[in-house]
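If you are new to this repository, start here. Below is one unmodified record pulled from the training split, so you can see the exact layout before writing a loader.
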Amino acid sequence: MKYLSGFVLFVAAALLLHNARQSEAACGYESCPKTKSNMINIHMVPHSHDDVGWLKTVDQYYYGHKSNIQHAGVQYIIDTVVSELIKDPKRRFIQVETSFFAKWWQEQPETVKQVVKKLVNEGRFEFTGGAWSMNDEAAVNYQSVIDQFSLGLKWLDETFGACARPRIGWQIDPFGHSREQASIFAQMGYDGEFFARMDHRDKNNRLDNLAMEMIWDASESLTNDELFTGLLYRHYSAPPGYCFDVHCGDDPIIDAKSYDNNVKSRVDDFLSYVSNVAKYYRSNHIMIPMGDDFQYEDAQVNFKNMDKLIKYVNERQADGSTYNLFYSTPACYLNSVHEGLQTWPNKTDDFFPYASDSNSFWTGYYTSRPTQKRFERDGNHMLQTAKQLSVFADLKSEQQKEDLDYLRQIMGVMQHHDAITGTEKQAVSNDYDRLLYDGIIGGASNARDALRVLTNLPEGEFESCLQLNISECAFTQDSADNVVVTLFNPLAQTSSQYVRVPVKEENYQVTDEKGRLVASEVVPVAWQVLALEYRQNTTQHELVFKASVNKIASYYIKKVDKVESKENVLSTADQKPMTQLEKNLEVLKRFKKVHSMQNVETHADDDSETVVQTSEIKLVIDNNTGRLKNVEMNGVSEAIDQNFAIYETYESGAYVFRQKEDVDLKFLEDKVEFTVYDGALVKEVHQQFSEWISQVIRIYEGVNRVEFEWLVGPIPTDEDTAREIVTVFDSEISSNGVFYTDSNGREMIKRVKDKREDFNPDLGRQPISGNYYPIVSRIALEDINKRIALLNDRAQGGTSMQNGQLELMLHRRLVQDDGYGVGEALNEQKYEKPLIARGKVYLILNSVEESTKVERLAEKEIHLPFWKFFSSHSQVNRNAAAKPLADFNVWPQSVHLLTLEPFSEHEVLLRLENFLDHIEGNVVSFNIRSILDDLGGVEIRETTLDGNMPLSEMKRMKFQHDAAGSRPKTAEFFTSQHKPLVAHKSQADSKFSVSLKPMQIRTFIIRNE
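And here is the target side for that same chain:
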């Protein structure tokens, strides 16, 4: 611990100084250094970019372990930075990742904590960004982004108070930037954001047009949702030759009487660089970052040389130099720019896809590690479930709080731009899985504790099954007789959904809590799933029934004597046993009795088609190809061909998707063998496309969407050929190159093939990758008559390369690294075999005149479906009454319960959203007094989106557009557009009225008794 002795000395000195005289310095913008109006003000920003996992695990980075992989130890960075800041009140540093800092803070003695609080209160140690991690912006869902900002900002507020609140988004490393992220910053009251990655052509265009900084209109539905946004000139590292960190080899500044004195040359070169930077920015302020990945581990080296640089640059002012160099922060820089009263160009869409050169579009990570992307969604699902149940049951024990906080924190880690993206080393990916699994188990424990209070099963097991995606559940593998399935609905409104429970091939009846019989049926699990070597094959069927749940409902499963099956089997005329994989023969034998069930005629005039239909949807399968041929729903009929295809690539990596030049997408052309299971509740088409690609198409009675559950892998590769698998939906819709993709699961953005808003992309080498966009929840296209939308269950890359065609990338197995740092090929192995992935895509076909509200509703159910808990019927206590819960059905249908969670010892956070946009919906008004009463609330106050600042205190910088025609005369600010709600239970009901504009989110803190 080479830094420890010096650190302790400086702590002692600082405490003595602090006790001798209280500092008069203020935090925030008041603490910013003075600038000079007649000079170029150079805001030098010391920072360290510390990935929350990438080449090493989170703990390995923090403790400095595994230096053979990468020399990085975050604990030492914070140690030495604090030590150096104490030496000189002019020095500054920004800390970004709250997760690392919180870990460091827990280990510090009280004397150190007091020193750091002083530094924070004087604005010298400034938190920027402030979330638990620096999140990705492509693959994340907005709910999880908000959660992890709320977590980080709450920790800062509780630890340091208002002086620690960040005002700037610092998204310097994500690989492209979303409009919704900017909207989130604006709704949290941030003044601006800065980043470092932008398409190389976009950046060159902006350099030529003084447009490196802009006003981002971050929402088409929300007004005043603008955010000042700036692009750093040269990534986020120090100027070339001026990296003074111990990781670098650049020359130090040598002064005094030394033969090697280099002050003049070092200052000359620095000012030459600065003068060039200044040419591309509009104000007389420029920001120069001084730092990079995991720098400042010996901060003395950095600060000593920066001190000298400042000294000798500013000495030249006496000789007429117009450069003024000083320590600063992004917030202080933006404050100076805001005071300059200039106008700025406009930005309306987003910064996807990001290309670092003509052959490198960073669009592969939209899909990389598909099973981990799905697991992250499971983590969010459990987090929302556990948070809501913790509120309803008023869970207070220290263990319960610890388990919930741990899951919150791990979900914050999972949003990191090398976690949810899949751009980490395999060993790190494994560690993320471990952390998330532990977090989910803790959340499930909280949920169990809550349900024992809230239901009539005070000793219920309430087990969660985390492998339902392969139809496996330990609780039902031996018997589903006398099993209770308790369903929790995280949505605000009562929802009706189909539930599937893995069972043996037996006969069951399902009843609800009132003893009423619920229609159900048993359907076979696809043989390709049963053939998975690591799956326990004790349950080869699934029990299907439809459940309607307000918040919590239990359904009872009981085995009954065999009755005549109502299930029919439709088979193609030349259906044969699927023998292409010898290892599956034994599995196929188990289905002999199923295949011999009564055949029924196809619903077509000849044998060329097989029709599968419910009262809502009609599907036509082409018997000659075995693929989907036509879909009819919502009064619309459209020829839709769905298939799988392969990109054979070589230079693709975890980040980048690179198609081989002159190699076309290869569609699977072999005839698809299929079987149709025709039940009363669900119709299923089981398809086998190749030895390693299969699918089940499902339609449920009364459900207005088609479900495609795909199974892909193990993907074959060889030395020079990787394969990236897509599903393609072809229709006859005349979309004219236009399609729509979601922004982090929220608003839709119009895309035009081969086009960008502000520049002409370089698509000569990668025309397909350059048209790929992140699809977090939905992609759609339309013409004047019809609209088709695909919804997915995890983040994926997608595009529309042909009129009427939608494409989603499902899985990737690669053979080499792409050269952007991860250092290994994306070649995932599970159970010592290449990864097999399974997931779902949903199709909605509609008239273009109909509202897309139905897609919004489907999105919510897909993102937050019922969570299933399993218990034994013997645990039911008929004398234990279920606790009444708050009824959110009193709200309008478009109101989404975005968050309900314990916030502090006596407070609950409630976050409400109008999930319809300005085209789909209108302002909705309702009263939340009943919810306050149901939750035992005494008073309620409204905050910014993150929940940590009273909305009444929000004052956010406003910048003037170029189009305004003139500069503002004084600095302008945004404040809340409505009167923030603050009310006490003693007041009239009218004080609890809430209105939500389309896409508006409002956040409240309810204080309990």
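Two things worth knowing about this chain: Residues 1-6, 19-23, 564-605 have pLDDT under 50 and may be disordered. The first strand starts at residue 40 and ends at 46.
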